Sequence to fold (645 residues):
Amino acid sequence: MDSWSYIIWIPLLPLITFVAIGLFESRLTEKISGLAGCVSMGISTFLSYCAAWQYFFISGKSEEVYRKIITLDFTWLKLSPSLSVEWGILLDPVSVMMLVVITTVSLMVFIYSTGYMHGERGFARYFSFLSLFSFSMISLVLATGIVQMYIFWELVGVSSFLLIGYYYDKPSAVSACKKAFIVTRFADLFFLIGILIISWYGSSLDIQTLIARLTDAGSPEFQAIKNETFLGFSVLSVALLMVFIGGAGKSAMFPLHIWLPDAMEGPTPVSALIHAATMVVAGVYLVARLFPVYAISAPDVLTVIAYIAALTSLFAAVIACTQFDIKRVLAYSTISQIGYMLMSLGVAGWGGDREFGFMASQFHLFTHAMFKALLFLCAGVVIHTIHSNYMQDMGGLWKKMPITNIAFLTGCLAIAGIPPFAGFFSKEDVLTAAFEHDKFIYTMALITAGLTAFYMFRLYFRIFHYGTTAHHHDAKEHFSIMLIPLGILSVLSLVTGFIPFSEFVTPSGKPFYYHMHFNLVAYAVIVSVAGIVIATLFFYRRSALPVALAGKMRVIYLAVYNKFYIDEIYLFVTKKIIFNCISRPAGWFDRHIIDGIFVNGTANATGRVSEEIKGLQSGNIRHYLWFFAASSVIIILLFLFIYQP
Fold:
């Protein structure tokens, strides 16, 4: 028996759970459906840790390089003698790391949800959708082929649609799930075009084969795509940019970020799952999976990615400073932190020290999953207790909710990059990579770090300090199963930063060692501490300073508070331009020309002709004989007249 054969059960168990709960939803109690979801995800998590241990410490390394292991491989569709759709499971440092992240956070969300969703209508349906979501993301990161990856990429989108719209009788939730689905499908069109171009020129649908052919300057496939141009640009660069657009849609990069804040309409545990371990990091994973092609064959595209990600990171951090819905603050925080990850990939390169940015990106993905899941689940406890998402209804909760208070503070310190919390180590690596590549990008990233510390502690103080409100005089933190994941994630948010990540996850599979640049670390910590100090002055207790400052900068404040009117711009473009100038004329043409003339006109003409000639079918045999005789005479006469020998 193959020692890796158990890997197939990591995605299969959530799939089986999805099918079982979905089929027998009406017959299952809350306890059974919740237990089934937690047990299956718990086993998948255990197997993921076994896989990580076996890969990183036992059999994954060969000659000091972590190798790529395909544990399952079969041909699904044979398109031609040289082209087929393969289906399999790929293990390498990135996919194994992602397995650990996805299953760990998913398990925490499953356990937490048994308490958070207690008493909700559709409890079993919720766990069925959660299982589908986990299955989709696990299968995505294990994919060996580009078609296989695309299938699960779309299935992740379907799963998010179902979970964001879980409260289907709530109009805002319905709008949010449709918005997420439409925006990400629009981006996925570019992704599909990009992978079709790459697969056409690479003459393969296998990811590793494509990487090998498109990074080898001597291969005919590389020469063919490199010599082709489109609008003056290399077709390879255009294709990779389209692939990135697909990732940008999933990872909510500007200007495709608009769906993510609205996705908060789903249950809070769903928000934790989407933001921490699944959907939004899919774009980061996509670029990381094809990173050799980007870095070796199209480094110009990486530069574009770095600038878009850095601007998105700063843009989202600025907006987060003005939001009052605590889940939306965390949503913009996620957009900003995903920007950090993609920015770090963008400033990375291939070989030697240039791989540092890749490692930093994956390290930040790993640590961010832990403390962002922690922050969302803490927010869920607060919302579950206060029955409100808004800061105005909170304040002074630290005495009433001491465990949640400590857990949330842990998450805030981690994301702010305060030592020795996990975010400090990964964020410093990202900033170091940016500094060594581009000082302008580094400056934007450093400002973003300060803003992150500011808005997170603004959020923390407004929830747990600032002053009491009349809305929660009965608020009390009851020990429940919801608090268990908070404790586990708090510990992980503290200790995961000490993992020597560069010894495990690198693009080439070769471990490397590095030392922190303490001068750069000092700058970043000083900026983060400054953000915390300002937030303390403004929001630890009630103060007139925020209102006064907002009044003096009213125009800027309103622009930021309204998210720079990006949503309004989209609505204007879609309703006023696309709908009025394109859709309405197209609809008129369809109704009056296509349907009116060609379809209905043809039908009406046929009907009139039928009405006029139906008298010919009288049923009288004598009439038929007369018609036959007359017709025969006419035909004979015409023949004699036309044919003259």
